[in-house]
């Protein structure tokens, strides 16, 4: 470990069940274990808090209980300013464009500003995020993206002079891997519209017509549950699509051990940790090719299969092919585990410390 620093991670809310929050708490705990003074700050309280780390070694702050609205903006900024002014020299990691716009101008000079973007360039280009990143991130000490491809495209098209890339880290590295012999496809994530689990159900229903022993297990909860149940019934697979609900983080490893293929059917993704986690258990993925982060995790034909975005027919073919071919599942899964080594937490934490050292110069 190099020099010990103060590191602040600021989120709009730090405790919702979501990718930004999971990564924030994983990196915060890892840096705290290495001796850094770490603070995780939520600008407002999560309506349904999720506990990511059982025994956090970092300080956790919630600036205000109410959701940030026009009436509470001034009070929230005062609270953030007081907190930041009490901290020693180091780094403030602002985890989204919204946080950058709220917090960047409140940072004292002794805290270097690092702006993260957890989405992909492909998604940002069609949303207000692209304009926000182009406008605000150029003024920070570093702008951090999830893959080399995303960083390069933001540098080229948003004209950012300060880009680098850091992948999301895996929470843990399993000693055991799946035998890939349980006829089970996994879909993991919040049951929200953007995840497009309806497409995964459709592809599974078609692919399993000749593989009737297979099941699809959807792990997660969310507002789409009722609609997805109805969709599974209309596709004729209600009895073979199992809605598992939310599984505690400590138990998710057993789900990977009991699965054989991961299906990623999202409309857009930044750097989907579920793919890296599946690969660490030796499990191949079938995924829509929606971002540089997905492409950095799934090496098409080597560690899994990529298909064109929204192409359910291609997804069906890729999924059915793996369901019918255990030897190919094992070959891709073994290569995926080797590839996932680069996303182990210790290696990503090394890169965070390298980033701090570069930013300090």
UniProtKB/TrEMBL annotation:
SUPFAM superfamilies in alphabetical order: UDP-Glycosyltransferase/glycogen phosphorylase
Enzyme class: transferase
Record-annotated Glycosyltransferase subfamily 4-like N-terminal domain positions: 18-161
Species assigned in the record: Sphaerisporangium corydalis
Protein's name according to its UniProt entry: Glycosyltransferase
Pfam families the UniProt entry points to: Glyco_transf_4, Glycos_transf_1
EC number: 2.4.-.-
Domain Glycosyl transferase family as annotated: residue spans: 181-337
Matches recorded under InterPro entries: Glyco_trans_1, Glyco_trans_4-like_N
């Amino acid at each position: 470990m190099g020099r010990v620093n103060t590191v602040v991670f600021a989120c709009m809310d730090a405790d919702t069940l979501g990718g930004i929050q999971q990564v924030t708490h994983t990196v915060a705990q890892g840096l705290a274990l290495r001796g850094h003074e770490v603070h995780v700050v939520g600008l407002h309280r999560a309506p349904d808090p999720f506990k990511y780390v059982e025994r956090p070694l970092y300080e956790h702050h919630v600036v205000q209980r109410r959701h940030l609205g026009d009436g509470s903006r001034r009070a929230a900024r005062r609270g953030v300013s007081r907190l930041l002014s009490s901290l020693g020299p180091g780094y403030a990691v602002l985890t989204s464009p919204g946080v950058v716009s709220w917090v960047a101008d409140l940072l004292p000079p002794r805290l270097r500003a690092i702006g993260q973007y957890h989405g992909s360039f492909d998604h940002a280009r069609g949303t207000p995020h692209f304009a926000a990143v182009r406008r605000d991130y150029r003024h920070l000490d570093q702008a951090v993206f999830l893959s080399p491809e995303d960083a390069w495209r933001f540098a080229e098209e948003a004209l950012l002079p300060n880009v680098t890339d850091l992948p999301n880290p895996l929470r843990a590295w399993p000693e055991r891997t799946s035998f890939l012999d349980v006829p089970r496809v996994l879909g993991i994530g919040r049951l929200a519209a953007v995840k497009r689990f309806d497409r995964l159900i459709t592809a599974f229903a078609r692919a399993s017509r000749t593989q009737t022993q297979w099941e699809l297990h959807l792990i997660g909860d969310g507002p789409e549950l009722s609609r997805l149940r109805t969709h599974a019934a209309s596709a004729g697979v209600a009895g073979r699509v199992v809605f598992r609900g939310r599984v505690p983080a400590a138990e998710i490893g057993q789900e990977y051990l009991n699965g054989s293929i991961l299906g990623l059917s999202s409309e857009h993704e930044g750097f989907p940790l579920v793919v890296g986690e599946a690969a660490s258990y030796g499990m191949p993925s079938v995924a829509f090719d929606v971002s540089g982060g997905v492409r950095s995790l799934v090496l098409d034909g080597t560690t899994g299969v990529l298909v064109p975005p929204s192409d359910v027919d291609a997804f069906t073919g890729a999924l059915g092919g793996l369901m019918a071919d255990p030897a190919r599942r094992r070959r891709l899964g073994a290569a995926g585990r080797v590839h996932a080594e680069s996303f182990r937490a210790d290696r990503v934490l090394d890169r965070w410390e390298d980033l701090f050292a570069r930013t300090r110069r």
